[in-house]
Amino acid sequence: MSGSGKVLLLAPHPDDELVGAAIALARARAQGVAVSVLFLTTGIPQECWPWEGSTYANRVQKRREEAGKVAERLGFDIETALEIPSRRLIGHLDGLRAVLSKLKADQLWVPAYEGAHQDHDAANALGFSLRSQFEVIEFAEYNFAGGGVIANRFPDGDGEILALTREEMDLKRQLLGLYESERGNLDYVGCVQECRRPLALYDYARPAHEGRLFRERFHWVPFRHPRIDWMAQANINAALSKFTSRFA
Q1: What are all long-range contacts of 75-80, with beta carbons under 8 Å and residues at least 24 apart?
Q2: CATH code of domain 6-247
Q3: Where are the domains of the chain?
Q4: Contact yes or no for 21/151 (Cβ under 8 A)
Q5: Quick one: what percent of the chain has pLDDT higher than 70?
Q6: What is the pLDDT of residues 27-62, one digit of tens each?
Q7: Share of the chain above pLDDT 90, in %
């Protein structure tokens, strides 16, 4: 994209602007491309331990402060940060599509449909619904295809590889480090390559790949741990399929 273009990146959570596209974003800015990021959720789930109930607002504020530091470092604008809690994006797709259809951009960047997190997959479906208005580019974040964690590679192995230089690897590590509140959750993020492609035409009625999904790795836990997303994958697929079927 030329320096006269504009990119709108849809980040399901504050940190997703980095996980899949940190260096792609940095390279675009270096070329003079205007980049703005829209954070679709707070990145913080409302589900929590009983003793954490009063800390939600503080955790949201901290996450937003971290996102602000990243934006300042990379030189992009934050379009807005929505008040939707993590794991609730799937219920807001119609309203968000109406808002996004009024925004101006040459490209829309979204996370891939990978089964990593239901909000990632919902953001991808949102991109699918807007592909008649925007050129939509998807970025691989992480998945569990083949029974192991894979970073920055699509489950089907397709896509354009962006090999990172040593300096870019260091930059991405530094940027991820700005999300101090997520330090324990970003160990699986790759800093060697990024991978992108034009949005694939997915069948959202089906899981992203065969076998166990990344979001299902801890469904063996015998109690309702609040850090685990317990929504049945069949329900997620039914909701995404119903939404996207109108834009096929």
Answers
A1: 75/29, 75/35, 76/9, 76/17, 76/25, 76/29, 76/35, 76/36, 76/37, 77/34, 77/35, 77/36, 77/37, 78/36, 78/37, 78/38, 78/39, 79/8, 79/36, 79/37, 79/38, 79/103, 80/38, 80/39
A2: 3.40.50.10320
A3: 6-247
A4: no
A5: 98
A6: 999 999 999 999 999 999 999 888 887 899 999 999
A7: 90
